[in-house]
């Protein structure tokens, strides 16, 4: 994976698909490196020039100490696009990635063609702040297996936990968590969590004029439905789609439908 210097950090990224096709920037969520996009790239790279980065604080990108901000992380990606010679891209942001995408569209509107905001929020209420604070505490005090269990409990729906095959897969994921070749250090997660807690774009979302698909799961306990509805209502050109019986990781719980639905939407917007 190549690296570029942007906004004071070295950012690792990968390009997939047809390099002459329309660019698609994919921004992942808290704790997750860009490689988590892999099951979606299998579809997206058929249609787009996919640019996937590791966010500041995770993977093979620099992990400076201190609190990050979604403004700062949006500027990271603006610099990445500039360095790649990409003037405008379609953007998909997942969870924390959706907050970065919002700020990219607000701070660098000329760089964003259309957007898909997955399980987004415009601001944190006290519950959301408490969850992010608890994530930091869990990272500080739990081993990798138990920290992974907590994240799984946050992001998977009851329907998934009731499926014995999914439960077995989740158990395997916990057992192999310690094998991550680039584990996120505590200070990297803390930096990202502060960006999540302090993100508040509600007053500026009306500035976003690009077509936007807001998409999520109705059973998401991490970023509940009211958050997706608030984002949708604040962006004039936004539409909302929510999966039944799906949680924060609705895009894996409905993998084939999600991949096709989002690809088709982006191809038409």
From TrEMBL:
Q: Does the record bear NADP in its keywords?
A: no
Start and end of every AB hydrolase-1 domain?
23-254
Query: Which Gene Ontology terms cover its molecular function?
Result: hydrolase activity
Pfam families reported for this sequence: Abhydrolase_1
Q: Per the record's keyword annotation, is Electron transport included, yes or no?
A: no
Q: Where are the transmembrane segments?
A: none
The source's superkingdom equals Bacteria
**Alphabetic keyword roster:** Hydrolase
Please name the PANTHER family in this protein's record: AB HYDROLASE-1 DOMAIN-CONTAINING PROTEIN, HYDROLASE, ALPHA/BETA FOLD FAMILY PROTEIN
Q: What is this protein called?
A: Alpha/beta hydrolase
Its source organism is Lacihabitans soyangensis
The root-end lineage is:
Bacteria, Pseudomonadati, Bacteroidota, Cytophagia, Cytophagales
């Amino acid at each position: 994976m190549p690296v570029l210097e942007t906004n004071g950090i070295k950012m690792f990224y990968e390009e997939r698909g047809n390099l002459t096709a329309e660019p698609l920037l994919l921004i992942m969520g808290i704790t997750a490196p860009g490689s988590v996009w892999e099951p979606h790239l299998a579809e997206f790279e058929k249609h787009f020039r996919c640019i996937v980065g590791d966010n500041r604080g995770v993977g093979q990108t620099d992990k400076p100490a201190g609190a990050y901000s979604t403004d700062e992380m949006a500027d990271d990606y603006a610099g990445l696009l500039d360095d790649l010679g990409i003037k405008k891209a379609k953007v998909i942001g997942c969870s924390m990635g959706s907050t970065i995408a919002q700020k990219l569209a607000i701070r660098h509107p000329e760089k964003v063609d259309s957007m898909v905001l997955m399980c987004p929020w415009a601001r944190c209420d006290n519950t959301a702040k408490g969850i992010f604070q608890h994530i930091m505490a869990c990272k500080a005090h739990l081993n990798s297996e138990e920290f992974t269990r907590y994240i799984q409990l946050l992001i998977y729906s009851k329907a998934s936990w009731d499926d014995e095959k999914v439960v077995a897969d989740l158990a395997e994921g916990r057992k192999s968590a310690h094998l991550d070749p680039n584990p996120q250090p505590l200070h990297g997660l803390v930096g990202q969590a502060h960006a999540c807690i302090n993100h508040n774009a509600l007053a500026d979302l009306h500035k976003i004029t690009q077509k936007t698909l807001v998409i999520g799961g109705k059973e998401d306990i991490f970023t509940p439905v009211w958050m997706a509805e608030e984002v949708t209502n604040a962006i004039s050109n936004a539409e909302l789609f929510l999966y039944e019986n799906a949680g924060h990781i609705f895009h894996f719980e409905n993998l084939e439908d999600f991949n096709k639905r989002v690809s088709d939407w982006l191809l038409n917007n």
